[in-house]
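User: two proteins, same treatment. go.

Assistant:
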Amino acid sequence: MAIEKVLFGTYTKRVSKGIYSADLDTSLGELKNAALVAELGNPTYTTMGENNHLYAVDKKTDEGGVAVIDLKTGKIEQEVLSAGASPAYLGFDQARQLVYSGNYHKGTVDVLKVGADGQLTLTDTYQSEGSGPRDEQDQARVHFANLTPDNRLVVVDLGADKVLTFDVTETGKLQLVATFKTEPGFGPRHVRFSPDGQTAYLLGELSSKLSVLHYAAGEFTLQQTVSTIPADWTAHNGAAALRVSPDGKFVYASNRGHNSVAVFDVTGDAQLIQWISTEGEFPRDMAFNATSDYLVVGNQETDNVSVYARDSKTGELRLTQKDFAIPESVRVEFI
């Protein structure tokens, strides 16, 4: 029996108390042993660093920021907070020992240097600008900040319909090198890359669309756009999480509203091959286990997590567990 540890970041608006963990039994495709790891306000995103340090979104009264947690003890070792809303995304740069913090409400990207003790120091801030045609696009709204395959920083601005690419110095200073504009109202949320680093997949939250982009030296070029929901779906939907299989053949997108995972075959032009129910409402994040044989999906509104076996040849998913209780789950991260 092989056991893999998975973390769940949450909202703490109703019943959750912070960050939870569980064990995935890969012989059964089932989660067990849910436990509270650390008490924290609205830890909606996490990213694992080194030496058992976990970096998590943090919220305290009218301040938001990043917490440094010792996973062995669950102790909060540091909180880097400032006035206003919490960030939406955290990325870890192992080579340069940096943490990138994307703030949806402020439209900013913060760069924090990781010290030898795992503690964070702010080194740079970039203020994105712009807006779009939809109600949610009244200002810049950064929803993603993480590394490209060639170790640049890519920042996704949902509010301004753009993707920004930066060069990053060893000390954590940013220099803008390219800007890609989506169609108006696309509302880009997350971007992921193919294993060879030449293709990027950009997920539109507001449009429920997936764009296939060519990537080279910081520049993105649009190749194709497809829908993540059925053509006759008229109720609200917001696309959320995006994952690419290790062999680069399949792409997975979660739909909040349609409450599904959309599976695409991308061996040629992107083609939808499956919608599968998440067995809950408002699926946010999802993650593969170490071998990508399983996909774990958290449902925020129904406080449950679903597990799917993944066929590596066809890319399709098969439900192996539903109704595993994790409150207000919005982040799934294997460690």
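Protein 2:
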Amino acid sequence: MTREDYMAHALGLAERGRGRTSPNPVVGAVIVKDGAIIGEGWHKKCGENHAEINAFEDAAAKNQDVEGAEMYVTLEPCSHYGKTPPCAKAIIRKKIKKVYVGLLDPNPLVAGRGIRMMEEAGIQVESGILEEECRRINEIFLKYITEKRPFVVMKTAMTLDGKIAAYTGDSKWVSGEASRAIVQKMRNSLTGIMAGIGTVLTDDPRLTCRLEGGRDPVRIIVDSNLKIPLDAKVLKDENCIVAAVENRGGEKANQLRERGVTVLTTKEKRGRVDLAELMEQLGARGIDSILLEGGGGLNEAALKAGIVDRTVTFIAPKFIGGKDAKTPVEGQGFEKMDQAICLKNIEINRIGDDLMIQGTPERK
């Protein structure tokens, strides 16, 4: 196996921690000696052992001697004391000969210190192995640790003629079962889920994760004027946030708080919640990622506010028509085609009969 093969294996291990490590990164580690993997591990949950320690424990359980071995780790080993001791010190103590690092950690508490610590102890370090792949799996962590704002994934599902529902409002179901299963995995892995008041009034969703053993995201409802009914299903579960424009809604804000709902307020922007300010408030609360499942109005506002980091669009092979049928992005829109928000880093996959198109909005 090549260096890239071992790092690819570590990347696969890292993905096993997806949805459980926030606000920490997902990390995988592999220990190699004499051309064979003798230990492997991943960061399983925030507050628990990091990937490197789990790899050492796996090797010990297999009665493998790690002295003189090589280690492949997707992210630079930490060098500071947090909820767990520094992994760089453990690597030194275990007398690892060489460490291959996928990506340097931008966390100011690490930022190259882990590598320096190992090199000063005589350990060879080589970085940049599958760097882009390592960057991609931790795009949420990388944004949050440097900007303290959540990484926002805008998910939409539409027919071939660009409709998200029939003109009657019926939307069950636009996409196929396999596509909907992917969305449930996204709800399980991202910290929050955000929708607008229009979605609540029309569909009365719970916005929970329906995977067996899954984790419900924090529900975030953008409701500029606090129109949300007190008996809305989304309010019946814990961890619900309602965002409104300050000094609007009157007594409704107090009624929501009495029910255990967190009410956040922002300045007004174009008559609505200032989404950029809301992202700052949510980031301060430890919400590092959001699945945006909004209607056309909220999606347009989010794109114009520049808060969307990735788009995921499911296109179903069906036509429904209707000039009044809703579309994924509405509002006033842009005046000219050259003002359109274009995507880069495009990925296209077939999911059952649907197409799934992912991309990153280009910043202008």
